[in-house]
Amino acid sequence: MNTVEHNEISQLDSICEKAEQIFEGALQEFLVHGYAGTSMDRVAASAGVSKATVYNHFGDKEGLFIALVKRLAQKKYQIMVESHKAELMEAEPAVVVRQIANTILDNSLDDQEHLAFVRLVIGESGRFPELAKTFVHHLGKPGIKVLTEYLATQRYIAIRDPEAMARVIIGTLAHYVLMQEILQGKEIIPMERDRIINTLVDLVDHHPKPES
Fold it and tell me: 53 φ, ψ to 5°?
């Protein structure tokens, strides 16, 4: 590696480190003050960088929020779906649905920061619908797409509408997280997660592919 290449890599590493600092500062500010109540001055102070650095990286507050949603969604998608995608595509439906359900619930129910961020997006969605659309586009849509592809192409079951079934599965899990944790309903309408997962597995298993 020559000196120019080494310097270019060092500069990229520095940019990534700065962006991470800004993301961490921005997340804390958005969670505490909401979208409307967060300023670029606050983000810069929380991140320990200049306001000019924040603007240079993200342009404005909306650009920063969108980039933050993309980053959080990418991390969640990598954990929940991408890391298991190859092996799951070859497994039987009961295994796939159970694995995906457990992974989604594990990485949602145990991540208080993620739950707080979902509350933020829901709370701000009325005034800032584009922010909510960004969240759905980068977090909800990819998971539905992968599960739809699996249900449409695997050889064990015949689902008449794979996308609708994928939405039923993802939607049930999202509703469980929403009602039990985000809206604090687990003491009012408690439900064991295994009952939800077992029911989803039964739902998919009731569509066996006819023998040829």
Answer: -65, -40
| CA–CA dist 205, 93 (Å, integer) | 7
Looking at domain 1-59, its CATH architecture is Orthogonal Bundle (1.10)
Q: What are phi and psi of 184, to 5 degrees?
A: 60, 35
Picking from 91, 205, 200, the residue whose alpha carbon sits closest to that of residue 157 is 205
The first and second tokens of residue 183, run together, are 């809206």
Confirm if 196 and 173 have CB atoms less than 8 A apart.
yes
212/209 Cα distance (integer angstroms): 9
Q: Which residues pair with 208 in a beta bridge?
A: 157
Q: Which of 168, 193, 165 is nearest to 179 (CA)?
A: 193
**Per-10-residue mean pLDDT, the chain, length 212:** 38 63 93 92 93 92 90 75 65 88 90 90 88 87 89 85 95 95 94 96 80 58
**CATH 1.10.10.60 occupies which residues in the chain?**
1-59
**pTM for the whole structure:** 0.80
For 191, phi then psi, to 5°, come to: -155, 125
Both structure tokens of 137: 């586009």
- CATH assignment, 68-212: 1.10.357
3-state secondary structure of 157: strand
The CA distances from residue 32 to 7, 17, 29, 110, 124, in Å, are 38, 23, 5, 20, 13
